């Protein structure tokens, strides 16, 4: 691309360089359209189509200003899908680790963002449920409740105050008879 431009600067009447320039411009325009389609597929949650379209325009990545952002969005989508698979497979520890270490779903309204929010809610609800069904009559039951609430706080650290407040009120009610 650079050599074609240079050839046109040095010799503006070079018809072959002009033809190559026009062809390259068309290909870049087509790649831009494909990149937009990849972004749409990723936003909708179609990782396969998004990945295929992104790979098809990879040779033009230096000319496509948003290529890196779309590539990052694809990685986030793949992590969100992996998170959902881990949770559905009852791989709690791995799912919590992925939530804690991976940057997932920065684009509000995207499939990745919605998936992460949904899985996070499922996780916290399950951990809170486990905390509530644990027997508060025994030390072992209280320990299980605390562990479950800690898992809920790991799953949703932004709302950790909600879990600690609910646990304090529940455990105070439970342990008041011990004092």
Strand and helix map with partners:
Blueprint: H1 2-10, H2 15-44, H3 47-57, H4 67-88, H5 92-101, H6 111-133, H7 139-155, H8 160-175
Considering the chains and any ligands shown, give keywords for the structure:
179 residues, mainly alpha
Descriptive account of the structure:
By secondary structure, the protein is mostly helical. Helices cover 77% and strands 0% of the residues. The chain has helices at 2-10, 15-44, 47-57, 67-88, 92-101, 111-133, 139-155, 160-175. Helix 2 (15-44) packs antiparallel against helix 3, helix 2 (15-44) runs parallel beside helix 4 and helix 3 (47-57) runs antiparallel to helix 4 (67-88). The chain is rod-shaped and about 90 Å long. The relative contact order is 0.07. The model is unreliable at 174-179 (pLDDT under 50).
């Amino acid at each position: 691309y650079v050599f074609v431009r240079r050839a046109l600067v040095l010799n503006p009447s070079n018809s072959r360089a002009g033809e190559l320039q026009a062809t390259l411009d068309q290909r870049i325009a087509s790649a831009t359209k494909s990149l937009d389609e990849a972004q749409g597929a990723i936003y909708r949650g179609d990782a396969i189509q998004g990945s295929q379209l992104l790979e098809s325009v990879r040779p033009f990545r230096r000319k496509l200003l948003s290529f890196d952002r779309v590539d990052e969005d694809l990685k986030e989508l793949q992590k969100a899908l992996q998170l959902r698979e881990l949770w559905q497979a009852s791989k709690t520890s791995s799912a919590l680790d992925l939530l804690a270490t991976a940057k997932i779903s920065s684009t509000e309204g995207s499939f990745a963002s919605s998936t992460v929010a949904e899985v996070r809610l499922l996780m916290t609800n399950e951990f809170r449920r486990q905390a509530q069904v644990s027997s508060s009559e025994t030390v072992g039951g209280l320990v299980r409740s605390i562990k479950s609430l800690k898992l809920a706080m790991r799953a949703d650290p932004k709302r950790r105050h909600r879990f600690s407040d609910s646990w304090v009120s529940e455990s105070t009610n439970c342990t008041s008879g011990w004092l």
